[in-house]
Amino acid sequence: MSLAFLFPGQGSQQPDMLHTLPSTPAVSEVLDESRSQLTRLGLTAEIDTAEALLDTTNVQIALLIAGVACARALSGDYGLTPHFVAGHSVGAFSAAVTAGVITLAEALGAVVQRGRLMEEACEDGDWGMAAVSGLPTRPACQIARQVTTAVDPVWVANINSATQTVFSGTTSALQKVADAARIAGAFNYERINVSVASHCPKQAVTARRVAAHLAGLPRREPTARYLTNTRGRATTSAETVLDDLAQAVAHTVQWYDATRLMGELGATCAIETQPSHVLTRLLPSAAPTVAAISLQDSGLAAAARRANRLLDTGDRQQASIG
């Protein structure tokens, strides 16, 4: 039986998210290493206050640290080793660290650059992201094509499920999306807590510069199958992982395809790291045979016990069939 770790992206951040992580040796080690690395980068370690989280770079750093800390606690403190890793947006960096493709220090350096470049790309206007629920993917994509203009562009940023699509664009364009989505029958429209437009051509320069940064890193083959953002496919190639980390910021996140594939490839249990349960709630519609567990909802110890029970039961059933 196979285990997956899921890592949430920007929009899932919460004040004091690092201060409320589980108190375990593995978590403490990650926090200490992160503080040391942030100091070397000339940054403060206090990045998860409500005020600090108004900054895109701080949000992404905090999510990276939280994801890696939770994954190491699950593995180091509870003996759970993932066969698959999947990170949504910046969560992909936590996935890559967990799979051994990049180190935490390397990821922190790349994410700091990524966050700053994303902010710079959107300094020329009022940009953001919004999620529409209740419409199939095709009508949602048609809305983006209908309302976008040269002055107020909008793009499909994430395909999260068969009926949830996230858009990136100007605030004015996103309001047009809201109006068109209601007319088309959507049951929910929600602005995401993000102050930039991501996963769209607005971030093309960000993608190129992050790619150049990552090009200088060693190539370490992943210890788990990494599910890509850009294509929704599984890979065990370090080169493909690094390319995905760089390019995803400028391309639509194919989360629905990735999670469907994860179930098809044999994942039976998935644990989402703090501070979110969004990915846990999306999973049943994409992979109904995969048991979804949220650390945010269950707590570390209870989540680890449940995952171990599910995996042990599955292994026994598989052995009896064999």
Which SSEs are present, and which pair or pack?
Elements: E1 2-7, H1 25-40, H2 56-77, E2 84-87, H3 91-98, H4 104-121, E3 127-133, H5 137-147, E4 154-161, E5 164-170, H6 171-184, E6 188-191, H7 204-214, E7 225-227, E8 234-235, H8 238-247, H9 255-264, E9 267-272, H10 278-286, E10 291-294, H11 295-298, H12 300-321
Parallel strand pairs: 1-2, 1-9, 2-7, 9-10
Antiparallel strand pairs: 3-5, 3-6, 4-5, 7-8
Helix pairs in contact: 1-2, 2-3, 2-4, 4-7, 5-6, 7-8
How would you portray this structure in words?
- The protein contains twelve helices and ten strands.
- It has helices at 25-40, 56-77, 91-98, 104-121, 137-147, 171-184, 204-214, 238-247, 255-264, 278-286, 295-298, 300-321; strands at residues 2-7, 84-87, 127-133, 154-161, 164-170, 188-191, 225-227, 234-235, 267-272, 291-294.
- It has two domains: 2-121 and 201-321, Malonyl-Coenzyme A Acyl Carrier Protein, domain 2 (3-Layer(aba) Sandwich); 127-191, Malonyl-CoA ACP transacylase, ACP-binding (Alpha-Beta Plaits), CATH 3.30.70.
- It is globular and about 50 Å long.
- It is of the alpha/beta class.
- Strand 9 (267-272), helix 10 and strand 10 (291-294) form a beta-alpha-beta unit.
